[in-house]
Amino acid sequence: MKLNFTINDLNQKITSFERRFNDDSEYSDDFKKMMVILNTHPNFFNAEDFSHFSLKEIHTYIERSHDHYRAYWLFKIEGTIEQLVANTNTNTAKVIKAFFDHFKNELLLHMRLEEAVILKFVENHLYGVVNSLQLQKMVVEFIQTHSDNIILDLPKIFSVFEENDPSLNANLIYSIFKNQLSNFQNDLKAHSFIEDEVYVPKLLGLVSEGLQFNDN
């Protein structure tokens, strides 16, 4: 599959990626380039392309992505939905708000749980803090039971909204909402791929080493 942007476009997107975190010093040029491509084309993901990046670089990306979702995407989309509710005289706008509020709460809980267990474990490791056996076992249990339910079937969801209220198809604010949520989902997909296929395997390697050490 051919990428739909030029080298100049790629450079502009890399600059945008750097601005997203307000600091590019933690990321290699190769990582930034790969993440720009992945955010634009999440289905291009191949775990082997990211396996050589350090745990610290991957951890920094995961951690800062959570901050970015809270401060940027959720805030931005909520603002658009508020405008939609204020300027639309149908009940569907309120349904959209209720849908997004539920999604937001699920995502925030998802991130808090990850930060309290797996990100905490890796952070301790990176800063030379010995992880307790209890935390190591919590990480294993968390990974086995934690559900990744943050990726939405957007075409189906948009279809339901539009079938209930055909006037949405001509609503500029709704179009902006669709575009924002679609871009956010691409970001979440990239994040999910990196977390599940790169970050967690590296993390489990550390946990395995720690448990073997404690068993001896």
List the helices and strands and how they pair.
Blueprint: H1 7-21, H2 29-40, H3 55-87, H4 92-126, H5 133-145, H6 154-164, H7 172-215
Order of helices and strands: HHHHHHH
Task: Identify the quaternary structure here.
Answer: single chain
Into which percent range does the helicity of residues fall?
Answer: over 70%
Indicate the structural class.
mainly alpha
Strand content: under 5%
Helix segment tally:
7
Main beta sheet, described?
Answer: none
Unreliably modeled segments: 211-216
Give the tally of structural domains.
2
Instruction: Tell me, briefly, the overall form.
Output: globular
Radius of gyration from the alpha-carbon trace, in angstroms: 20 Å
Tell me the total number of β-strands.
Answer: 0
Mean pLDDT: 84
N/C terminus separation: 50 Å
List the defining traits of the structure above:
mainly alpha, 216 residues, globular, 2 domains
Structural write-up:
The chain is an all-alpha fold. It folds into two domains: 1-41, no CATH class; 53-215, no CATH class. The protein has helices at 7-21, 29-40, 55-87, 92-126, 133-145, 154-164, 172-215. Helix 5 packs across helix 7. The longest helix has 44 residues, at 172-215. The model is unreliable at 211-216 (pLDDT under 50).
TL;DR?
The protein has helices at 7-21, 29-40, 55-87, 92-126, 133-145, 154-164, 172-215.
